[in-house]
Amino acid sequence: MLKGNLTCEDISKLILPYIDDKLSQSTKNRVALHLRNCPFCMEKYRVIKTLFESIRQKEILRMKKFRQFRLLSAFCDNEVSKDMSDKIQGTLENSQTLTLKVHKIRTLGKVLNYGFEKTFSDVNLSFEKGVMTRVKKQGLIDKVKDFLSSCVLSQ
Amino acid sequence: MKYKLKTNDLDELIKLAQNGDMEALEEIIKRQQKTVFATLYYLNASNDEIFDLTQEVLFKVAKNIKKLKNPRTFKSWLNQIIVNQFYDSLRKKKKNDTKVFLDDENDAKNKFEVPDFASNPYQKALDKELEKVIKASIRRLPSPFRLAIVMRELQGLSYEEIAKITNSNIGTVKSRIARARLKLQEYLKPYIN
Asked: Which of B100, B86, B71 is closest to B151 using CA atoms?
């Protein structure tokens, strides 16, 4: 199965970098030459390339969806520019799907805040006394330190 | 209110405290303790140390209040102290080779009691369940996402403030908050659909 300078075994190793366009021009040419002359490797190449292409497309779609969600999330937090906010607002009027996404983000916010409030509305804390005692003690310690260092300096 | 001055304005209290007014300082601590406690609670400080960490944060606030240049940035400054304190505790834990984040099962063994508040027993049960689910959901998030969403939803900080506190850029904060929301939408699906 030897074609050109590369063996089918070589092609197995080179096929992924070839698809990813990570090979030097001369190696690329040699792989292409082998593929043209070897139906077995060509078939393998086609299968892998189709698989990779479909993964890549899914990844692109996933990233696109995430970028859209990220923008809507920032929009709900008033963290987009005025222009972008107006643009999103306009799009929302014509898209039920996007409106639902925004609604879900806002509902999540409400649910979280409801939970936060419920958790701590009745918790009684009284750290202030302990903290103030420590602060006063610390103040005294600092004063003593200052006094001692001034004594040392005056000697 | 025990406080002698009739002011509810936090900025004013801060200025008074910076000028040595101890009552104003005490009032600030009193007002901020719940939010500090809540933030640490949701950031997943273990229940053993949550009281110690809260006390430590509040002490640092009291001790360093004079160093705060602009009272308007108090919230952001306070959260910086909380986050630093929280990460310090994580570093110490790692050093001691203990588990950093408690999972829910471990947590349940070591849970402090949150008082009941609603008068209706059915509502009470629902609130309790929801609170439990929210807590578990937030604690399931990876720590950078958790930190970002807690700072945003609980503390209401801007993306810029969160970026500063977490030493990251606004784009990263935007992504972390969005990812946290996606995950939480999944975990809390029955409650938000």
From this structure: B86
